[in-house]
């Protein structure tokens, strides 16, 4: 409490983890209504917003809801409006970290992410072609859990932007 009679909460500047914001007492504006609305209205979405608009935090909020982490939603709109006993397998790919230097590097990043996810869910991937490995993971997750698989991709455009900038640099040299 402060002298004015209210709590001062930390601002989550640059924090894109819903779990961290909720467990470390950061200020959070409840947008979980949109999680419910999004799920009710359809199954495929492309969220295109300007940078620093909260897309990554929203995707992580979706991930935590689909993973049925009910305790994180206490006091929020979604808490008593979600089927918490229904847990979905989630494939979460984030291309926001590091610099993607080439298409070969991008393939290695994708391979690494798919391998990490398959290990987490204890799924063996046998497909040799990277182009088929993601599909294999989805199919095996569905078969193992008998539940729709949620695929969330964050910063999908960053590898493209990284390579465009690299190409521009090499053209000017």
Summarize model confidence as the mean pLDDT. Answer: 84
Q: Biggest sheet: strands, sense, closure? A: 2 strands, parallel
| Shape descriptor | globular
> Could you say how many structural domains there are in total?
2
| Lateral arrangement of strands in the main beta sheet | 1-2
The radius of gyration is 19 Å
List low-confidence stretches.
Answer: none
Structural class: mainly alpha
What is the number of helices? 6
Query: What is the terminal separation in angstroms?
Result: 58 Å
Tell me the helix content: 40-55%
Strand content: 5-15%
How many strand segments? 2
Topology (elements, then pairings):
Blueprint: H1 18-23, H2 32-41, H3 55-66, E1 90-94, H4 103-120, H5 130-145, E2 150-154, H6 158-172
Parallel strand pairs: 1-2
Overall description:
- The protein has 173 residues and is mostly helical.
- The chain folds into two domains: 1-87, no CATH class; 88-173, no CATH class.
- Helices cover 45% and strands 6% of the residues.
- The chain contains six helices and two strands; from the N terminus they run αααβααβα.
- It has helices spanning 18-23, 32-41, 55-66, 103-120, 130-145, 158-172, and strands spanning 90-94, 150-154.
- A two-stranded parallel ribbon has the order 1-2.
- α4 (103-120) packs parallel to α5.
- The longest helix is centred in the middle third of the chain and has 18 residues, at 103-120.
- It is globular.
- The termini are far apart.
What are the main properties of this structure?
two-stranded parallel ribbon, 2 domains, 173 residues, 45% helix, 2 strands, mainly alpha, 6 helices
């Amino acid at each position: 409490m402060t002298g004015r009679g209210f709590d001062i909460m930390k601002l989550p500047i640059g924090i894109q983890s819903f779990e961290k914001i909720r467990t470390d007492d950061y200020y959070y504006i409840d947008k979980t209504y949109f999680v419910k609305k999004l799920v009710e209205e359809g199954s495929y979405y492309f969220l295109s917003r300007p940078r620093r608009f909260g897309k990554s935090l929203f995707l992580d909020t979706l991930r935590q809801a689909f993973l049925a982490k009910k305790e994180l939603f206490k006091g929020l709109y979604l808490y008593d409006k979600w089927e918490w006993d229904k847990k979905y397998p989630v494939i979460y790919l984030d291309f926001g970290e590091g610099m993607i230097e080439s298409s070969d590097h991008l393939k290695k990043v994708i391979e690494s992410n798919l391998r990490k996810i398959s290990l987490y869910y204890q799924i063996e991937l046998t497909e040799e072609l990277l182009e088929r490995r993601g599909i294999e993971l989805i199919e095996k997750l569905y078969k193992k859990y008998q539940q729709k698989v949620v695929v969330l991709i964050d910063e999908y455009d960053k590898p493209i932007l990284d390579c465009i900038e690299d190409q521009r640099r090499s053209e000017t040299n």
